[in-house]
Amino acid sequence: MKEPARVHDRHAFDTLIDARSPAEYAIDHIPGSINLPVLDNEERRIVGTLYKQVGAFEARRVGGAMVAANLARHLQGPLADRPPGWKPLVYCWRGGLRSGSMTTWLRMVGWDAQQLAGGYKAWRRHVIDTIEQRAPALPLVVLCGATGTAKTRLLHALAAQGQQVLDLEALARHKGSLLGALPDVAQPSQTAFETAIASVLEHLDPARPLYIEGEGRRIGRLTVPLTLVERMRASPCIELRASTAARVEYLLRDYAYLGDRPQWLADQLAPLKPLHGNETIAAWQAMALARQLPQLFEALATRHYDPSYARSHRSYFRAWEQRQVVDAADLSPPGIEALAYRITGLRNEEGHGEEEQAGQAPQGAQGAPASP
User: Fold this and answer.
1) Which of 54, 227, 281, 353 could staple 135 via S-S, CB 3.0–4.6 A?
2) Exposure of 252 by Cβ count < 10 A (0-12 exposed, 13-18 middle, 19+ buried)?
3) Active-site residue identified among 17, 19, 47, 92
């Protein structure tokens, strides 16, 4: 008998098999795993009902036949071409009967199959621990700026240039704003969102900056883990500044698809009535229905987002007064690429300056904070 396989052993296996139902897998799963359910959604419901209403024996008798049929289907289908030396790791909800049954069958075939101790619940604990333990020490550099300063596109450019980024909006499948829902794209579950964050944090180099967009506590309907929010609030900030005209031009490119959804766009503005009044919102909704996006985006930027921007950032980010301000006049794709190189240069210069100060300062001296 081998030692039980743990979450940190998963990379030593050829294939990670999620034996849970498709519905469970869709909510969240270990990255890279394939779903080969021993009970489908309806079968799992039937077995669960039998367990509660009749008893464990009847549930296992009926469920056992279902499991055998599904395992035979997997062996004849997705697993038919696996070589003799194939080594899979199997998990279910908590490392119980479902993954145990599949592991037993695979071993009888002759494969070196192992069962993940603790199942998905062990993975979930790993995700929570990874975020809680690593977030407080992350070398974050927070990109801030008024609506339309291309912060997300700048993250993409930094990533393309080999920098470390944590793109929370991409992981959340939402742009984070009032109009941030993506067309025909559902947000992941909260647990899947956290799994995606932990997967990024696991592979970071703590000696290099990690660029992140300044986010609030929520992105759409998802909640950013509190430890990550606290680290973001305490980290150094870079503020991007651009003219209203440049920002509107960028927003027209980045949200061009809203022109094809005028009614949806108008409906999204309704919650702003308590802030701006019925008359103003009716005028903005009319712009949406008429597909007058330039006028609508300028009104939203200058009358809704901008008034609270500086005040909210000053109170939210603790290092706001020491932020670096960067002119982002050109928000075209080439301009954003050039801006990414400038941002990287600023961080490199700052790091080099800190090293020089550390070598020259007398013992016990404390440096003054950098000016904005």
Assistant:
1) 227
2) middle
3) 92
Distance CA 9, CA 237 (A): 38
92 is catalytic: yes
The residues near 267 (Cβ < 8 Å, ≥ 6 apart) are none
Beta bridge partners of 88: 15
Alpha carbon distance, N-terminus to C-terminus of the chain: 62
Bridge partners, 181 (sequence order): 174
pTM of the predicted model as reported, rounded to 2 decimal places: 0.90
Per residue in 34-76, pLDDT tens?
999 999 999 999 999 999 999 999 999 999 999 999 999 999 9
All residues at 6 or more sequence positions from 130 whose CB lies less than 8 Å from its CB, including other chains: 198, 201, 202
DSSP line for 107-131: HHHT---EEBTTHHHHHHHHHHHHH
Q: DSSP character for 173?
A: T
What are the tens digits of pLDDT across the range 2-37?
A: 678 999 999 999 999 999 999 999 999 999 999 999
The tokens for 257 are 């698809």
Give per-residue pLDDT as tens, 255-271.
999 999 999 999 999 99
- The DSSP code sequence of 27-73 is H---TT-EE--SS-HHHHHHHHHHHHHT-HHHHHHHHHHHHHHHHHH
In DSSP terms, which residues pair with 114 in a beta bridge? Answer: 89
**Distances from the Cα of 332 to the Cα of 252, 253, 259, 365, angstroms:** 12, 9, 20, 44
